[in-house]
Amino acid sequence: MKNPVDEKHLISPFLIVPLMYVSMVGVGVLNFQRELAEHAGYNAYISVVLVGSSIHLILWMIYKILCSNQEGLDVTAINTTYFGKIAGNIINFAIVLYFCFGAYIEFRAYIEVIQLWVFPSMKILPLSTILVLLIYYTVSGGFRSVTGLSFLGLLITLAFILPENLLVLPYTHPLNLMPLFNHSITDILLSSKSMLYQFMGFEALLLFYPFIKSPTKSQKWAHLAVFFITLMYLMLIINTFMYYSEGQLHEIFWPTIDMLKIIEGPVFQRIEYLAISMWLIKILAGISLGLWAACRGMKNVFKIKPRASLIAFLVGILILEYFLKDRSIIRWISEFYSDVGLYFIYGYIPIMFVVTQLRKNWNKG
Amino acid sequence: MFMRKIFPVFILCAVLSACADPKIVNKICLVHALSFDTVANGKKSTALISQFKEKGKTELYVLHTESNSNLGAVSRLNTRTNDPLERGQLRMALFGKTSAEKGIGTEIHQFFRNPKISSRLQLGVVDRDASELLEIIKKTHDEPFFLSDMIEQNMRSGNLPLVNLHVSTFNYYGEGRDMFLPYFKIDHGEVRIDGLALFRSDKKIIEISMKDAFLLKMLIQNSKNGDYKVPVSGKESNKQGSEDFIVLRSMHSKANYIVNKVNPIPSISIRLNLVTELENAPKWVDLRSEEQLTQLEKTMGSYFKKEIEKFLSLLKENKVDPVGLGDLVRSRSKEWSAQDFEKIYQVIETSVSVQVKIANTGST
């Protein structure tokens, strides 16, 4: 297999684990429990398992799609070969916008967390400008620096998610999880939709696939990452459900951070400030990966230099962040994004899978 | 080359920290305890405040404010200090007797929603005006964390079950369970924890003694380190007709709940296992005799059974459910509603059996 990307930009197959992690674990991990419980109540952990297993299937499809050609191309090239130049590029542009908006939503949510929990009186513009500069610095460093930051993000967030789950154990009521099945399938599927929203972003694999050295070897690592992330979400949601009574969970917006308020360390009386600050690295990595994918798409589609499109995207994010203050529009954007993601993952990818497999058999025949 | 690339990151991170308002410890006043009372013409809030002077030296103040609502008490108190008030070190919130009886839901909601307030905040009810208690603390102890430390000490090594803001909101917002808070009493100018105040929704209904608090602790968690006095009467002691007492200390306990049936009237059996250490026993008990110890275990078991049954019927009579029996029934039934359970709470069947084991008889 020949790879179009220069050897010095490639990453080892196992480094796909941190990349999958930062794209699948976003700000949502701080408050997904509440949205899930809205429909399926305390049965919502079933949704996590459901979505997690479906992601395994989708991931397998993605690998099949990308392996179907011999040159190790990414999805933009596949789109143009299969759908023609114009239709293919329209799809490609939609994918670029999708990643760009994903990054914006993540950015927005993190700023909201900072304003609510750490610095209530901080002005948005200086804060977001500095974050944007950091993102520019990472993305312009190329794919390997994005991977490096993701690796740091993985280590740092694991360093607090796992102890958090252990330290709240004395306050848990396992009885909360009973009865095991008292919600309808519809409720559980509705919850699954908001769970999918958390997992969105891993499709970046469609674009960074050619950057993996011997890509086929990375498949087992990717599955391992998805398995591990599902397990983490599952552990977190079960712990949250045992920690809060159902009525209590309705009253709070950020259950994962709120749980930290019970932990008291020898030096730190309150851990959440530290946790939110450390979370910055992971958030930056997630946003950088999304923007990197968007820039890569722009380069493939319109032959625009990544640096130029990166600057355009970042300025766009800043402008949106500064001028868009209406909460209902923001809510609408993220709902729209989550709907698009639903069709992208469960619609577009399976269709592409079918198309590429048919084509492959056709060629053989 | 590498340094030139990494340098801007450090600079940017340093610049980030300048975006916030600085809060320096000797330029702010820390609120350590707040109290809420109902007075004739509205509500009174009192705060115990400390101002940092130099290392190891702080000065305590008590400030009052009156208004028609408890909301925004801290911002009103702010008009009485030279440095801004900060709530990050709030450890204790007290409610006066009348205000607890009228309902403390808004205050609890306020604390629960405020990201600055720790989940370990202690709440408590005072047998009179809560502001009096703060004055006493300032006068006699001059120690800002005295009350919260007192509660925590009693949870660790006494009869008080685990309570804090998280546990209270868990019980308050959770269906099928009710809140309980430590109950303070002032006599002869001294403060003591007298037991627990039991709530229905956000209103205080009754208070129970420290003795009953131990029973509650046994029913909801491990009652380690709690102590209890059990009267025993032996053949030798009958002469005077007076009762002798065994003072026992719990080393470990576990409650098992079995729901026998859910409909139409739930029936629950509670099995308690208690491992104890005897702190004090009457002279006539021979602690080396296995036979007498087994007899003693039986006597204590049946005494506990009687007391817990009495305690449960007290709860049912007052329609308060700090044990969470409603939640227990909910976890065993497909359809459950808090309103329906409330109607039948007084008639649900509970049977208790207690196994006591003496693990340690002391030095005698």
Task: Walk me through the structure.
The complex is a heterodimer of chains A (about 375) and B (about 375). Chain A has about 375 residues and is mainly α. Chain A has one domain (about 5-355): Amino acid/polyamine transporter I. Chain A is about 75% helix and about 0% strand. Chain A has helices at about 15-25, 30-40, 45-65, 75-85, 85-120, 125-140, 145-165, 185-200, 205-210, 220-245, 245-250, 255-260, 270-300, 305-325, 325-365. In chain A, helix 3 packs antiparallel against helix 10 (about 220-245), helix 4 (about 75-85) packs antiparallel against helix 5 and helix 5 (about 85-120) packs across helix 14. With about 375 residues, chain B is an alpha/beta fold. Chain B has two domains: about 20-210, no CATH class; about 210-365, GMP Synthetase, Chain A, domain 3. Chain B contains eleven helices and 13 strands. In chain B, the strands form two sheets. In chain B, strands 1, 2, 3, 4, 5, 6, 7, 8 and 9 form a nine-stranded mixed sheet that branches. In chain B, strands 10-11-12-13 form a four-stranded mixed sheet, sandwiched between helices. The interface between A and B is large, with 37 and 37 residues.
